[in-house]
Amino acid sequence: MSESLRAQTGPYFGEFGGRFVPESLIAALDELEATYKAAKSDPAFRAELAELHKNYTGRPSIITEAKRFAEHAGGARILLKREDLNHTGSHKINNVLGQALLAKRMGKKRIIAETGAGQHGVASATAAALFGLECVVYMGQVDTERQALNVARMKLLGAEVVPVTTGSKTLKDAINEALRDWVTNVDTTHYLLGTVAGPHPFPEMVRDFHSVIGNEAREQMLRDFGGLPTAVAACVGGGSNAIGIFHAFLDDENVRLFGFEAAGDGMDTDRHAATLNYGKPGVLHGARSYLLQDEDGQTVESHSISAGLDYPGVGPEHSWLKDLGRAEYFGISDAEAMDALRLMSRTEGIIPAIETAHALAGALKLGPQLGEGSSILINLSGRGDKDMETAAKYFGLLDAK
Amino acid sequence: MSRTANALATPGAKLIGYFPAGYPTLDASVEAAVAMCESGIDVLEFGVPYSDPVMDGLVIQHATEEALRNGFKLKNLFDAVREITSRVQTPVLVMTYWNPVLQFGVAEFARELAASGAAGMITPDLIPDEAAEWLRISDELGLDRVFLSTPTSSDQRAATTTNLSRGFVYAVSTMGITGAREDLDKLARGVVAKIRNADPEQKVAVGIGISTNEQVKEVNEYADGAIVGSVFVTSYQEGGIEALKSKVRELVAGLN
Ligand SMILES: Cc1ncc(COP(=O)(O)O)c(C=O)c1O
């Protein structure tokens, strides 16, 4: 690996990426790409985004060392990059503010978004309120039920939430519905895609907006924690929080990168969302990438207790990193994630999102392998308030309603 | 020369009709397709059911979901096409999202298509920029390939699409997905004009939102054909094959 992996841009990451979308969207994607390119090198845009990070989101996010949790991780140091402390409670706001500024630049008054866990929907509704934009959020009906708190938040923020009842009624179908809306209203509407999937320029652009996570963390590690970590870990749904923290470390050959996918009922069952482990390359939602599909190329439904990881696709840059062997991807079952969620809550007083808990469970397995003296930097991508109903049911904390 | 283009080049207004393969069953879809051809459509657009059809409205989504639930498999597609082309002369274009073709293998899919007697393929989520393998194999096998051009396509993209399409160019009438619309956009005339401008010899048909005899007539004043889909599925749902036939006859009435 002599070439810089960090320098890689779209439309292709190796054989992955591209633009497999209806012609109707090409003009909008071209406009977005041009607007983003211009903004990226415009000091005024960068200053505006930096100001929002600092005085709205509350960046830089801190790193917390989790010493009591680490006692269960085989002696590895555990360091948490606290994206849960961002305004709205997850990493999603980093990308949303960037894209909302671009929507303004393009003169688009309406934004649409898909959401699984509801965190991207809440962040989008928040930015729409802040910038005075109309906001429609598509959300699978299954997810509106298991993330009801976030539906209420979006509505309070003034967004319209449209429950999607087609297909598996989860994130995949919410993206389909958002794409249909965009094809129809592309003149007035920006599709504020919430992860590093989709057609070019989304995977590159969303990654860039989240790369602030790793850039900060790398500096914080060097400055405050005695050097680069042995490993960096994150959960992987579409892959935005993972690429956000990985990116700064891509060229640090000695830092291992681990992504944890949802294994649902378990890696030995067919009810999972372990796209990079069990998928095959194919085209979904505008990009070529690993994909859970049958022999006819029909998308196979994914399964996970976590709405944000319950997706049969993954961003193309992760597929590339997997094939290169630069990042490694493993599955974490519902049960392992929920145990880690409870352990983090009880050892550190931090209740993570169920998505995030997959990365925590991964670190518990990784620690003993990396051994004494190693350190694992984990993207604590979101907080768990939204998941209290699921967790209460899971742990039997509430009486049956 | 392209069989589809030939069919569109004969005198008179033209109707291109869509029906989903495997809906509600494979055999029933063959009967429906044959009935449409016998009732007067000029080109058949035979749709491949797909799990994530982002260009389709609810009518077609529900129909293709049902086809998948009823066990539609890609390998059956070619048998169905073979059966249709053995019974009618109408050119058959397979309309499919790209991932099923990719998984089957682009070249293999194309060879099966050719062997089954299909004229070619319409690809709603494949732009020419990503189509290198399909361009090559369709040239080799002489298959028609229909790309889409839309109101937002630049002149340059419209020209590329026009030059790389064979059979006809699918002019998207309005911004949106399939489903009946009351008013046909004047945007359609603009799309057709760009295509004519790029190549006056290329055939162009207008689709998305067309559902009435008047619309079919109006479109044929400036294009080489009108493409109709959702309303045929709806007719079939309401009254089976007889309703489907009379809908085709209604739409072609007075066309020539
Ligand atoms: C807190 C949190 N982490 C992770 C994810 C997964 O998305 P991604 O893989 O794009 O980071 C979500 C998605 O909803 C989320 O809310």
Description:
Chain A: One of its GO terms (molecular function) is tryptophan synthase activity. Chain A: It comes from freshwater metagenome. The complex is a heterodimer of chains A (401) and B (256). With 401 residues, chain A is α/β, with parallel strands linked by helices. In chain A, 43% of the residues lie in helices and 19% in strands. In chain A, the strands form 3 sheets. Chain A has a 6-stranded mixed β-sheet, sandwiched between helices. A 4-stranded antiparallel β-sheet of chain A has the order 1-2-12-11. In chain A, strands 7-6-5-8 form a 4-stranded parallel β-sheet, with helices on both faces. In chain A, strand 11 and strand 12 form a beta hairpin. In chain A, helix 4 packs across helix 9 and helix 5 (119-131) runs parallel beside helix 7 (148-156). Chain A is globular and about 55 Å long. Chain B has 256 residues and is an alpha/beta fold. Chain B contains 11 helices and 9 strands. The A-B interface holds A 18-24, 26-28, 166-167, 172-173, 176, 179-180, 183-187, 280, 282-285, 291, 293, 295-299 and B 50-55, 57-58, 61, 65, 68, 73-74, 98-104, 124-127, 129-130, 147-150, 152-154, 157, 161, 172, 175-177. Pyridoxal-5'-phosphate binds at residues 90, 116-117, 119-120, 195, 235-242, 308-309, 353, 355-356, 381-382 of chain A. Pyridoxal-5'-phosphate binds next to helix 5, helix 10 and helix 14 of chain A.
Overall pLDDT of chain A, averaged?
96
Q: Report the total helices of chain B.
A: 11
* Low-confidence runs of at least 5 consecutive residues of chain A: none
Q: CATH fold name of the domain at 13-143 and 209-250 in chain B, please?
A: TIM Barrel
Protein name (chain A): tryptophan synthase
Cofactor (chain A): pyridoxal 5'-phosphate
Organism (chain A): freshwater metagenome
GO cellular component, one term (chain A): cytoplasm
